[in-house]
């Protein structure tokens, strides 16, 4: 037994391993061929709370734990399918030796492999789709903001123009609303809208205003339907 212990070696090369949820975990362990009688087991944890993961016995076909090289006497690498968060922990590859009392005792163990399980990250396709969706939403927001800005600007510029056009159009309607009988009444009505100017030295008065027709133009030069034009003659007397 002492000679077997000196010639025996157990290699557990992995110190830390990280695996995603649902993936397969591989734990490596190899031994030398010359070993004392006894099984090689994989234990999760060490001490009183350890749990046997693989015991070199007939395995249940539905078990998640399988050997990488089935039937080998030197390669005791195992694989754990569909890893879950509760699989997190430290795993030990242990060589047991059978004593005279037929009880398996620890012969040699590995340094242990610390296993951490993390949540599955988003696949690249989902990440790309999320980026494209965010970009489209940004373009939509910018388009809506531009439309609102243009509408507000057009409304601000058009409002004064509308008021101005309305005020200008009301002037001829007010001037022409009534029907004046004589040309002098037309001048009186227009002069009432002008600002009054008073002077102590001189004052201008309009005595009368006559509308006289222009001399008739030759018929051959007049286009059909052209009406004769009129002009106004004003006489002013100054005091």
UniProtKB/TrEMBL annotation:
InterPro entries: Ig-like_CS_Receptor, Ig-like_dom, Ig-like_dom_sf, Ig-like_fold, Ig_sub, Ig_V-set. Pfam families: V-set (PF07686). Keywords: Disulfide bond, Glycoprotein, Immunoglobulin domain, Membrane, Signal, Transmembrane, Transmembrane helix. The chain crosses the membrane at residues 126-149. The keyword Methyltransferase does not apply. Coiled coil: none annotated. Residues 187-239 are annotated as: Disordered. Residues 6-104 form the Ig-like domain. SUPFAM superfamilies: Immunoglobulin. The keyword Cell cycle does not apply. This is SHPS1 phosphatase. It comes from Cisticola juncidis.
């Amino acid at each position: 037994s002492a000679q077997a212990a000196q010639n025996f070696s157990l290699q557990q090369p992995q110190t830390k391993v990280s695996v995603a949820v649902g993936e397969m975990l591989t734990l490596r362990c190899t031994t030398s061929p010359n070993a004392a009688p006894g099984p090689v087991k994989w234990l999760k944890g060490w001490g009183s709370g350890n749990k046997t993961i693989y015991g070199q016995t007939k395995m249940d076909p539905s078990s998640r734990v399988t050997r990488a090289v089935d039937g080998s006497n030197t390669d005791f690498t195992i694989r754990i399918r569909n890893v879950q968060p509760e699989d997190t922990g430290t795993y030990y590859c242990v060589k047991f030796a059978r004593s005279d009392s037929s009880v398996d005792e620890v012969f040699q163990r590995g340094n242990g492999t610390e296993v951490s399980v993390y949540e599955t990250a988003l696949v690249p396709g989902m990440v790309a789709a999320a980026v494209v969706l965010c970009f489209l939403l940004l373009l939509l927001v910018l388009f809506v903001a531009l439309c609102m800005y243009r509408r507000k600007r057009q409304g601000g510029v058009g409002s004064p123009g509308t008021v101005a056009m309305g005020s200008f159009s009301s002037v001829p309607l007010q001037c022409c609303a009534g029907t004046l009988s004589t040309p002098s009444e037309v001048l009186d009505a227009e002069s009432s809208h002008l600002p009054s100017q008073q002077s102590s030295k001189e004052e201008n008065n309009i005595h009368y205003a006559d509308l006289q027709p222009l001399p008739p133009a030759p018929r051959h030069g007049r286009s059909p339907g052209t009406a004769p034009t009129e002009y106004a003659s004003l006489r002013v007397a100054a005091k």
